[in-house]
Every structure is written in structure tokens, then in C-alpha cells.
User: Fold these one by one.
Assistant:
Number 1:
Amino acid sequence: DLDRITRIVQGTTRKDEAATRVLPMFFDDFEAYRILGLNPEAPPVAVKKVVDALRMSWHPDHARSEPDRRHREERIKQINAAWDLLKGVRVEAA
């Protein structure tokens, strides 16, 4: 699990080119697991650890530029929506 979390966190250190990409906000359970980089068979404890690691690594305070900040804010919304969906709480995106 720790190796997987490390790979996910390392994937967050992309250049600003990726910061302009728009991420989808509406998805199903399968897409939620994909967004979090997890197998649907992952135990709930592992899911929570990955979500916590993703939230820390994608936090907007780590942004290097304004486009990067916007991208991180969108990514955090996506991570939170995926987590809410997997917890069984359907959240409408604004």
C-alpha cells in the first residue's frame, strides 16, 4: 500500500502544462476508484489512507503558479467527490 501511495503522490508533481486540463466531476463507482488510483477490491482502510495522501499532495497551497493552483483546486474537488461517492454519499457538484 505504501508503494502505491508513493507512486500516486509522485504523479502529482506534474508541470504546469497539466494545470490547464479540466477534470470530470460526475462519475460512477468504477471511475471514483480510477480517480483515486485504486482497485475496487481495496479495503476501506487503504482507500482512506490514499484519499488522505492525495489530499495532502494535491493541496492548493503547494501550487507553483496560478494555473497550477486552479488545477489543484479542481483535483481536490474531484478527490473529495470520489471519496464521498465511495462512502455512499452522492454529492452534487456545483
Number 2:
Amino acid sequence: FTSESYYSLLDYATGDTVIPFDDHTKLSADSEGMYFKLYMNGLQAERYYKLLIKHNNNDGVTIYDEDYYFKIVK
């Protein structure tokens, strides 16, 4: 086990978890770096969402909260 990273999505206004960290939110990697695909069909229009990244490695678990957020527009 060297490292694994996951994403989570929160409702920016309420802080409620919309998409939790789990096996379905594991980041992929290629020669250019890490990435993920976020399917937005189930997200509400005109709401803000906040992205968190969780990184597991041999040293432990770190959750990055860099206040990355976006809005779903119609």
C-alpha cells in the first residue's frame, strides 16, 4: 500500500455530504497525473458544491479542504 486518493462533494451552503469518500470516488491516474470523472446529473441546479480530497498513504490519512467550490447552472 503506497497511496490512494478519493474525492467527496459537500453542499456548500449546508455542509452536508452529497457524495461521500468511498470506493466509487477513488481517483484514477495516467501519465499526466491524477483525475476523476464527476457525473453531475443528480446535482441540483443553482447550488454550490464543495470538493474535498482524501489521500491515504503509509504515513496516514490527509483530507485536503482548499475551499474549491463550483456552481451548477441551468
Number 3:
Amino acid sequence: MVRRPAVAGQFYPGNEKKLRENIEDCFTHEIGPGSLPSEESEGGDIKGLVCPHAGYVFSGPVAAHSYKALVESGIPETVIILGPNHHGMGAGIAVADEDHKTPLGKVEIDKEMVNSLTEDDDLLQVDNMAH
């Protein structure tokens, strides 16, 4: 199964071209980093980021600082995104095991990582409804 984008066209543009333009605007915005990320490096020494995740109009330029640093440091093979359960549906501590469709393409979930995180943990549950 593939999770369809829940708020494409609401909190961010639903088409690829407009979304790319919107994201680029966050990087070049006066309170953003001022430029798009330069070439991606190998390795990467960033172990974690704390970024706001409101709509791009509210927090995109601030978040762009972190993402520019990540790209220039080297994007890791697997990324774990932690976030709140905004709607209170599903498990309180949940991980998704279905890929996500976005206007920029499909994001594949590392199912081996999901299995390793949940196999011996009674708190963390696979629950796509929470996402």
C-alpha cells in the first residue's frame, strides 16, 4: 500500500512544479539561508535536526536552514522523522510501514528498519492510521 498525501493542495502546493518553486523560495527568502543547497557531500556528520513543520508560509524559511546543512553534510541512507500525533487517531507511539506518495514522488519506507524498531518494543507499534 501507498499512503496518499493528506494535505497536498492545502498546506503546500499539490503539483510538483509549484511545490519545487515554493521550497526554493524558502531557501532564498530573506530569513532563509539565502541560497539553495550546494552540492551534496559524502558521509554526513549531522545526527539529528530539530525543525518546525508548519506550512511553508509560516516556517519554511527557518526549516530551510536545517535542510540546507543536511544536504551539504550528506543525506543519510535512512531518515527517521519524529512528530506529534496531531489528530489523536491510532497508536500513541506509532511508526508507518507503508510508502508515502508526495507531489515530488514516492518516499519508500525502510521496512527492515521498521521491523527492527518494533519487534522487541511493546510501546512502538506499526500503525498507519496514526500517520
Number 4:
Amino acid sequence: MLLKKLNSNPKLALFSGFFFIVFLILAFWQATKGIEKERLETKFEESLKLEPKPLTDISKQWDSVTLEGSFDFSKEILIDNKIYSGKKGYTVLTPFTPEDKEFSTFLVDRGWAQHPYISSGASNKIKEAIRGVMYIPEKNFVVGKNLASENWPRVVQQKDILFLESIFGSKLEAHLIKLEPANPNTLAYVSLIPSKISSSKHFGYAFQWLLMAVVLAFVFIKFINNKDHEQ
């Protein structure tokens, strides 16, 4: 009976079937992304609960680490267009060169500063110990030619570490270090998040696509039933 109704409306059946499958694929894809993000969030939360450990060559994303070295406040990089408490400003990245020569310079995320920015660094090249969380900045899409200002501190739009390395002019470690709130060099502290899109949002999107598939199927079946009654 159903097959007969489908054969009587081949174009509508093909159209509805195609988008029904597309909606289900999109729902499955978003659900899969949600599961991945949920695992990432769990790993992130567990890492933050651990006591900081000295930086080693096996330290990785979200590890809390300690290291000794010195800041260079003369070559800071400012990530532009960061809004905090309704105010425009920057994420301030300050170079930190470890005492351990096994590592290159790290860019330390000292937090948010309001525009216009005036460096709060009291001095350069003084050895100190810092604690923070290692993370890799998410890439962002930027359009335009003027991606960095000419003078230090360099104001940039792009957060990709290879681009930041080209701005800095020498080798940088792939991870940034989010400076702990208690450090006197920390500015307005903005908590880290493991991803821009949370697992709950992905699950919400998956539910929306699944709902659209169900609604499409319901409308299609109702339509062909009504058309059958009319005949």
C-alpha cells in the first residue's frame, strides 16, 4: 500500500527521501562531534584538577606546568577584538624564555587588557618561576592584508602559532601557556575553554536535525495520505 503511494508521487518521494537521509546524516555527524567534545571537556576538567608539574618534553595540551625563565615585555603580541565585560581589548601574549635550553620561547597568555594597551611589565629578563596551563590556540579565519601592526606591541588578528612565529621573528613553542590567576603579571583573567562549541551545543544541533527529519517524514506521509483520500 505504501509502495503504491510512493510510486504515485515519485518526484516528491525522491525529494523527501533525499533530504530525510541528509538530515539523519547531519544529526549523526553532530552527535559524533558532541561525543568527541564531551570527551575533550572531561579530559580538560580532569587536567585542571591536577597539581602543576615541571615542564618536560612530554608535557601536552591542558597540562598544568611550572617552569623558570624570564619575560620579555618589549616584544608582546596583542590578539585584537577581544570583548570582556562589554569592553573592547586584547588578549596579551608575552614571550617567556625558559632557563631550560631544550625549549624555545613560549608565548604566555597573561589575560585580557583594555584598549588602549600600556604594558604592565615592570622589568625584562628577570628570572622567575611561573605556573600555567598549556594549550594550543584554535585557528580563526581572517580576511585582509593588514594582519599585524608595524610596531611593538604587535596587534594581530590571527591566532595561528605559525603566523605568530612569523610576527615574533624566531622559533616559538607550539603551545601557549595560560598564566595562573595568582601570578602578579596576570591581567584580567579569562578562563580557558576547551572548545568554542561545547558538547551540549553539538547535541542540540543533532536534536534539531533529527527533529527536522521526523517532521519531514510526518509531512510527507500526511500529504500522500490526504492525496490518496482525495482520489
